Amino acid sequence: MNYQLRNLLFLDIETVAHTSEYQNLHADLQKHWERKAGFFRNDEGATPEELYGQKAGIYAEFGKVITVAFGILHEDSDRQLALRIKSFSNHDEFHLLSEVKDFLETKFDPENLRMCAHNGKEFDFPYLSRRMLINGIKLPYVLDNSGKKPWEVNFLDTLEMWKFGDRKNYTSLDLLTTIFEIPSSKSDLDGSMVNEVYYHEKDGLERITAYCQRDVIATVQLFLKMKTLPIVPDDKITIVT
């Protein structure tokens, strides 16, 4: 296998507001959210209650993780590049994050493991770490950057790779998959819909899990494109339980 792909784990997380309704949020947190909501540009005059459903899930202090999907590249029996997808989903965040921690610590060499996500350095990695600490879970080595030198932090980010040092603009995974002609993960769902689907659809978590898995596949294919390597054919992608 290409050396760039060794010990490399791709991931994506899906998050929602911590409670289904703003009124169910602890009173002290409501005060903090009202203060936070005051910083949002709000041309339509949305109330803190309305903004809570729209935006709370992107902040680790007011949201929670409901799904984490991982992708690992490997060579199959024919020595061809293949992709294995493994996901964890649960309404109970402590149980979910405990499973993720166990997966990271028991399935990989912790000191050599690298992780890659799109906008991972700004969102997925810190969000996952913060929610683990809030849940009283000790961080696995790969997520614990305390005391590490910059070159010891094993995070890769396809958004950062695309920026080439340009810090001005955000480029979505969906846009990059479009220009690189990679099948998009946004078939029947996008990030703005996750909170609504989770709290108001009977099979919401299952639908969101499938979406998260597709995001990981898209991130893997984008990484390969940016390394000018062949993408993984559909028949070489396996979702494991």
Automatic annotation (TrEMBL):
It comes from the Bacteria. GO terms for molecular function: nucleic acid binding. InterPro entries: 3'-5'_exonuclease_PolB-like (IPR019288), RNaseH-like_sf (IPR012337), RNaseH_sf (IPR036397). Residues 62-228 form the Predicted 3'-5' exonuclease PolB-like domain. This is Predicted 3'-5' exonuclease PolB-like domain-containing protein. It comes from Marinoscillum furvescens DSM 4134.
